[in-house]
Amino acid sequence: MPVIGLGVYLNDECAEACEVALQNGYRMIDGARYYENEIQVGVGVRKSGVKREDVFITSKVYHPDFTYDGTTAALKESIANLGSSYYDLYLTHSALGGKDARLAAYRALLDGKASGMIKSVGVSNYSAKHIEEIREAGLEIPVVNQIELHPFCQQKPIVDYCRKNNIVVQAYSPLVCGALDNPVIQELSTKYSKDPAQILVRWSLQRGFVPLPKSSQPERIISNGQVFGWEIEPTDMA
Fold first, then answer.
1. Which pTM does this prediction carry?
2. Which of 35, 106, 161, 172 is catalytic?
3. Which of 28, 39, 149, 237: CA 20 to 30 A from 156?
4. Does 35 participate in catalysis according to the annotation?
């Protein structure tokens, strides 16, 4: 799994964003059925010139489809939308719907993995309680839990739980939903001669998360990925 990905939420016409990202070093695209742009993701990947096997693509099933048959149908439609035979990672998008519904959807994804439609299965917005339900049902633990993470939303209990259980933590909204004018972020931006978004993505990387910054602007997509070869000092990582 790459250490940074492009998020495509609220980007209905995301083909160009995916193409730009992949042509500038990104190798992961994070989508979802709820975003209604899986077709656009596939178009962008193909236009990028990067081989499909070199791109890590994620999608998610939303809670209204949380039945076994509903999730299976959603997964098959996602694959048709993408124009590929598989997803690298597929998640349950939320913990809504109740225990039985969550487990039914998760079982469907595991069967999708067994049949080759998915390489890895994960969850999003799950607490430790929800992941323990999976363990207690005798099912394999998710490889990923994707949650909102940034300096002002650190969610330490679930982060600690995931680390103890070897679950990769992906960070959505790592750019604080665009609120980059915080005085501390601005101060660090000046100190390191980096823009505020780069500070936030770098913070996420140094915390051991997999950040998924989103943008539809080519220059921002490129800039958000220029976060290697420098570090935030430990005293600034609170």
1. 0.96
2. 35
3. 28
4. yes
